[in-house]
Amino acid sequence: MSDNQPVGLSADQPAARPTELLGFDNVLFPVGDLGEAVGFYERAGFPVAFRLDDIGLAILKVGKETPGVLLRVEDGIVPRTPPWPSPRVWLEVPDARAKGQALAAAGIPLLAEPFSVATGWTVEIADAWGNVIGFTDYLKRPGLARSS
């Protein structure tokens, strides 16, 4: 080992910079009722990774990734209806228009019809507390899409 190489790191694997962004951990959505929220997201296609009713918390899976959507009961949060300015989380799906049809068939209203974006199509939904999730595809730019 050279005197310049940090202990525990191989020469072909540089150290991460302490302030580097490495990826998402979880996306947190405040909700008013855990049971209602979990039911909504299950109908939208999110499997429940785990649920802790005693502390008002549920983690929903997103694809094969470990991070997911974290639902947390917050005191005083009340339902609200769209439209409103809100942060949005978009998740990749193979076909956003097909996802929109599946959401509608599950009784989940779309915020608008699927719309065209630079990479493909996107459709958005909102839960009862105003959390907005979009489902987007890469049908126009398949080279950028994740593999299943």
Explain what you see.
The protein is of the alpha/beta class. The protein has two helices and eight strands; from the N terminus they run βαββββαβββ. The strands form two sheets. It has a four-stranded mixed β-sheet, covered by helices on one side. Strands 5-8-7-6 form a four-stranded mixed β-sheet, with helices on one face. A hairpin with a 4-residue loop joins strand 6 and strand 7 (121-126). The radius of gyration is 19 Å and the shape is globular.
Largest sheet: 4 strands, mixed
Spatial sequence of strands, sheet with the most strands = 1-4-3-2
Order of helices and strands, N to C? EHEEEEHEEE
Question: How widely separated are the two ends?
Answer: 41 Å
Radius of gyration: 19 Å
Instruction: Assign a percent range to the helix content.
Output: 10-25%
- Please provide the count of β strands: 8
Averaged pLDDT: 88
Blueprint (SSEs and pairs):
Blueprint: E1 27-31, H1 34-43, E2 48-52, E3 57-62, E4 65-73, E5 88-92, H2 96-105, E6 115-116, E7 121-126, E8 132-136
Parallel strand pairs: 1-4, 5-8
Antiparallel strand pairs: 2-3, 3-4, 6-7, 7-8
